[in-house]
Each structure stands twice: as C-alpha cells, then as structure tokens.
Please model this.
Amino acid sequence: MNNMVLKGDIAFTPTKDIMEIHKNSYIIIEEGKVVDICNQLDNSYKGYLLKDFTGKIIIPGFVDLHLHAPQYPNMGLGLDKELIPWLDTYTFPEEGKYDDLDYARKVFSKLIKDLWRFGTTRSVVFSSIHKESTKLLMNMFIASGLGAYVGKVNMDRNTAEELMENTKKSIEDTEEILKECCESDLVKPIVTPRFAPTCSEEMLSKLGELAIKYDVPVQSHLSENTSEVIWVKELFPNSKNYASVYDEFNLLGKTKTIMAHCVYNTDEEIDLMGRNKVYAAHCPYSNYNLSSGIMPVRKYLDKGVPVGLASDISGGNSLSIMDIIGGTIQASKMKWLESNKELQPLTFNEGFFLGTKGGGSFFGEVGSFEKGYDFDALIIDDSSLIGLNELSIEERLQKIIYTGDDRNIIERYVKGIKIEEPFTS
Ligand SMILES: [Zn+2]
Model:
C-alpha cells in the first residue's frame, strides 16, 4: 500500500488557460495516483500517512522533453558558435567517448543527480550511438527512481568518423535494446535517428519499421536552423518538406513522436504535426545559443500541436525547467514583436503548463493533479523569496519560477514515491 495525504498550498494547470489552486488543502494519493483534493480531511483517510507541508507549495514535477545525456560535460561550452560548427568542434568529439563505460557512469550520475536537484521528474533523453552506455543510462535512471525515455542515437552518414555507424549493426543494436529494455514501468526505450541529414534512407526506413514492430515512440530534430533546412532539401530532393521526410519513413506520429526545435516549419508542416499528434519540444535557450531563431510556439498551440519544454543540453545552458519556463515566456514576447504583434505572447499559466502537463502528457497521465494522474510532485519552500508583501499563491509561483532555484525544492515525488538524491555514495 502506498497511500498518503499531503497538506499544503496546491497548484497545477489542468489546461494551458486554467490554474487550479487549493490553498491549505489536502491531496490524497493512492497507489501512486491522485484520487482527490479536499480542504478538510474526513475519516476515510485515517490510516494514510499524513505529511504536513503547511505554508509550502505543492506543484507537479517538471518535464524535460529533449536533452542529450553525453553532452552534459559540455554544458556552457562553445556557445558562441552556430549549430553545425558547434557539433563538429564540441559535440561529436565528446559523444565519441561513450564506449568507455566508466566515463559514461561518471557523466550520467552527475546528470541524473542534477535532474533530481532541479525537480525534473521525467525526461526524454538522447544517449550516444553506443549500445552499452545507452543500457547503462537506462539502468541508472531506473536506480534513481526518476522517469525517462532513453534512445540510442543512430547515424550512418555526414558525421565524425568515430561516430559513423554501419547501418546493419546500428539497427541490430537498436533492436537489441528495444527487446531487452522494456521491463521498467518508468524508464523505456525510444527510437532516435539523430536527424535526417545523418541518416541514410535505409536507416530511416528500418528505424520506422522497428518503431512500429515494437510499438515504441520516436524522437528526433526538426527545422532547428535555416542551413539545416536547406541541407535536408538537398539530401531528400523528392520530399515535399523536412517534416515529410520523417513522415515518409513512418517516423512522424505512427507511434508517439517528439520533434525538437521546430523553429522553421512551414504552416503545412505544423498542420501535419497537428494531424499526427507529434510533440514539439521547445528549446528556447538552445535556440538562442546556437543562433537558431525563436520557435513560434503560439502557432503550434493554435493548430493543436502538443508542446513541451526542453533544456536541449548542451545546446542549452540550463537544466532547470524553472529557468526554461521563464525563458519560454520571454522568447514568445520577442516573437510577438517580430511577428508585428500577431503571435500573442504566452501567459505565465501557459508557460507553467508547458513545463509540467504539456510535456508530461507524453508519458500518459503525468504533469497535473487531476484525478487518476501519477503523483509526480515537488514541494517548494519559497520563504526565502517572499515576505515583503502579501502575495497570492499564483504570484508566489511566479516568484518561484522567475527568481527561485533548486534550493527552493525540498522534496520530489514520482508516482507517489519520495525520490532521494541519487548516487550519493
Ligand atoms: Zn538536440
């Protein structure tokens, strides 16, 4: 039995336009799921473990829809470059190191510890091309108690020599992971062509087949940067556009799919994503750092495309979804100006929704405290941030997102289990 009651100021966003707030209330958890929120506790919950967080805020855990685990040591490096030179100078040499499992273990334990620290309870992660270190990363996530999708990267052209895969071997390695690593409830594999330019047609076609055969989701990159879009046009002259390259190979929504960046998609491509229910992972910091551009998030929301937020480590320079929620709202304001005030900037509520339920819905009923949702939660002590004026809970939440940091997160839960700091010894 895993039944408990937490008391505190509860806040979550069931939709992008609504913030539900329950001041000084009780949230009831049974078997890891939310069953009710009430302002008085009746006798039926008598035997439940009661945790009293009076004066603290209880919010859903954050969700990061796109990051590269093997790039973690590079976070903050080379960010004065554009995408392709940055990949060649920093990223590919670092990603070449992950046939060394001892090195991989050191990097992954630091990354997972920091995800925990920043309250990211679920993430969707690129590993490298290496099969064994990908399995190691999955096992380390399982040991931590945090939720994740983890993908072994596939690349068989247009990359550094040490990362160039043999197509057949790459597919075999991927299939081995899909067969072996589906046991965990919280950590699962995901098919991960790096992006169209580094995959042959044969590779893309086989990956699409694997995703369908094993019914696993897909992640990749799409329309991050203008030179990349031109390059894809040259490499796939018969495809209508960049998004349709993935679509033609069953990698755009046949199974659940995330495409990172989506800065330069045409309206036609956005419509296609909407029809196929493909998630867009918005990476505002990475898009600034690599001079990629600003994603028109409002357009995606208006067209019904599911959107979540992402750190895109190490194109991005912060693992904190709190920072990224603020950054997302700021980016949307710049886009509003750039669009002659056509694309409305995001509200605070919308930013918070994208960092919790927006990305969380990729995992199922995650990222909110509606009935039946997994209780993935953070307990926030904002006493260091407030005190000068009386604030509403929503205003306190704004302070937390814009001026707080990991020190304000005092407890983390995934599916009703309190997650302790991983890999401390
Ligand atoms: Zn990326």
Notes: The chain is about 35% helix and 25% strand. Residues 66, 68, 221, 260, 312, 315 surround zinc ion (CB under 6 Å). The domain at 62-363 is CATH 3.20.20.140 (TIM Barrel).
